[in-house]
Amino acid sequence: MIMIYVTGDTHIPIDIHKLDDDAFMEQKKLTKDDYVIICGDFGGVWGNGRGDNYYLNKLENKNFTTLWVDGNHENYTLLKNYKIKEWHGGKVQFIKDSVIHLMRGQVFNIEGKKFFTFGGGNSIDKSIRDPGRTWWSEEMPSKKEYDEGLKNLKLNDFKVDYIISHTAPYHINRDIFKKAVKDEYKLNKYLEDVEDMCDYKKHFFGHFHEDIDIDDKHSCLYQRIIRIV
Ligand SMILES: [Fe+2]
């Protein structure tokens, strides 16, 4: 039986060390058939002369396959260069053979478990970031992506096992993190609507850089790496 883990933002190179051999010891017994899912702010496709390949090759050489949804800190200009392919029922981009971007609004079927993925988020520091170099408007989803998510959920009778996103549904954003910002409202509300219309077991997200189990159905992940399958 395969194993699936989920964790929070990696902000390569800053927070990728949680996946180091001596930090994430379980990887010793994993294979490329096992997965680690990153809940956004992967940061491995960044460019700007930083040498992405060093970190991408490190992941490619790991004993597991890396899956990631996008966050607000990804280079969307570079990401567009990767071909979109079909994988386990949804759209992905292969950054390396075993480093795979799970696109927005997709439902993936992995070992009989369904995952709805919906990345994106608002950068609260965008006013001091440089558009096209350290900030991209594509950090927030397009109408097409929102619509595609609903269409794919419908095709799956609004039944999934896990929701994987970068940011949180609106009420959690507002009540737990006190970070309900106008610029992210549409996405937070969308995630809340998705939860309302779906039968799902658990929703995992990152973005807030905290490790909190909010309730039985919601966990915010940062440094934790949790096994879910
Ligand atoms: Fe982050």
Keywords, separated by commas or semicolons:
5 helices, binds fe (ii) ion, single chain, Ser/Thr phosphatase family protein, 13 strands, alpha/beta, 229 residues, 6-stranded mixed β-sheet, Purple Acid Phosphatase, chain A, domain 2, Metallo-depent_PP-like
Q: What would your notes on this structure say?
A:
The protein is α/β, with parallel strands linked by helices and 229 residues long. It has a single domain, classed as Purple Acid Phosphatase, chain A, domain 2 (4-Layer Sandwich), CATH 3.60.21. It contains five helices and 13 strands. A seven-stranded mixed sheet has the order 4-5-6-3-2-1-13. A six-stranded mixed sheet has the order 7-8-9-10-12-11. It is globular, with a radius of gyration of 16 Å. Fe (ii) ion binds at residues 9, 11, 41, 71, 73, 207, 209.
* Order of H and E elements: EEHEHEEEEEHEHHEEEE
Q: Please, how many helices? A: 5
CATH superfamily, by name, is Metallo-dependent phosphatases
Rg calculated over all Cα atoms:
16 Å
| Tally of discrete structural domains | 1
Q: What is the SS-derived class?
A: alpha/beta
Low-confidence stretches: none
Overall, the morphology is: globular
CATH topology title: Purple Acid Phosphatase, chain A, domain 2
Total number of beta strands: 13
The termini sit apart by: 9 Å
* Overall mean confidence score, pLDDT: 97
Q: Strand-residue fraction? A: 15-25%
Bound molecules: fe (ii) ion
Helix content: 10-25%
**What is the CATH C level class, in words?**
Alpha Beta
What does the main sheet amount to?
A: 7 strands, mixed
Protein name: Ser/Thr phosphatase family protein
InterPro entries: Metallo-depent_PP-like
Organism: Anaerofustis stercorihominis DSM 17244
